[in-house]
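Bench notes, afternoon.
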Amino acid sequence: MQKRSFFYIFLLFLFLSIFLLVLSGLGLTSRISSAVSTVFSPLQAISYSVLSSTKFLNNSQVEKLTRQNQDFQQKLVDQQKLIADNKALRDQFQTQNPNNLSLLPAKVIGAAGFIPGVSSPETFTLDQGKINGVKVGEGVVYKDIAVGKIDQVSDSVSQVVLITNSASSFTVKTMNSSNLGVVKGQGGGTLILDNVLLSENLTTDELILTKGDMNVNGTGFPPDLVVGKIKSINKNPSALFQKAELQSPLNFETVSDVFIITGFK
């Protein structure tokens, strides 16, 4: 019985083979192929349409999820900025010094010429300008630490020269004995205490504070801002003055929020 079934199947395939050879000789195979395509093309079109719709739906879902993820990331960044801003404001206004002064919060939005690991910041560009009441000469602080003074102002931004800038110099005093001197920026993030009489006593790690040079318009540094502490002392017996190298408590490379002293309250 199995042999008979196999024989019939063999005859069927043999017949089909001979039939296709005949059609090929008559040039009819292309017509049959065309007919078959005509019959099955609607099914093919429907299948492609269904598949395309499914793909479009998936892409739409992916794009929607991508947008939602981007929105979430932006909200997270904004929230972190708000937390940082609130912390900076809270820390600043909990600081006792400077007191009786009007402080304008500002963000550092640029530092010309600064390349991390290569150079130190010499100036900051701040996001506050003339329309916010900023004027040339106003002091800039972070908590009770001197940052620099405003030297350029446009309508919406301003530039502050940092205390470490070689163009910066101002009068200071030692914390312990109130000896007077002048702090001069040396560039590259360094500070020198100069013009201290040779007879005066300086000690390592002693804090150096601003003497205060504010004018009636409210520009300048108030007294008792922290400038830095003494790292080393250069005392030459044949010189009139002694010098000391200072270290600011601020890492100017990472400062992002400061406060401009816009006058008295």
